[in-house]
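R.M. (postdoc): so does anyone remember the format we settled on? I'll just put the structure tokens first.
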């Protein structure tokens, strides 16, 4: 993805200043929300390596296959709980909007994040109806 393009997480910054450096391993996500946004961006650009790398070792799957026909449209952060620079755990509720097979849909999840060796990682999530 071109660094000058708008970041898929829709935070309002170019990819090269927003999630791009996090996906590239040049810097860590400072908060649980920042990690959530970078993981959404990784889904949008098909970066399975980053998704696995940013997943808690205890809950990480062996492999991850993304649906190449699914196009992620935008991310809505509903709420965050803890997950700041001085926390060890955090929760982010979000709605990720997508298009697949010509139809729009959304994924509403409450995700839990934790720090491992000082870095935020995705622990697990509960999908909301």
């Amino acid at each position: 993805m071109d660094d000058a393009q708008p970041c898929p997480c829709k935070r309002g910054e170019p990819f090269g200043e927003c999630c791009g450096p996090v996906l590239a391993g040049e810097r860590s996500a400072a908060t649980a929300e920042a990690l959530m946004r970078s993981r959404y961006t990784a889904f949008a650009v098909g970066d399975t390596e980053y998704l696995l790398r940013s997943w808690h070792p205890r809950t990480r799957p062996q492999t991850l296959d993304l649906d190449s026909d699914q196009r992620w449209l935008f991310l809505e952060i509903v709420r965050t709980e803890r997950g700041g620079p001085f926390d060890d755990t955090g929760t982010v509720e979000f709605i990720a909007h997508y298009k697949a097979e010509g139809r729009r849909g959304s994924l509403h999840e409450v995700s839990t994040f934790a720090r491992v060796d000082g870095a935020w990682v995705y622990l697990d999530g509960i999908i909301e109806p």
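R.M.: ...and that's the designed sequence above, right after the tokens. Also worth knowing: DSSP finds three helices and four strands in the chain. Residues 32-45 form the longest helix (14 residues).
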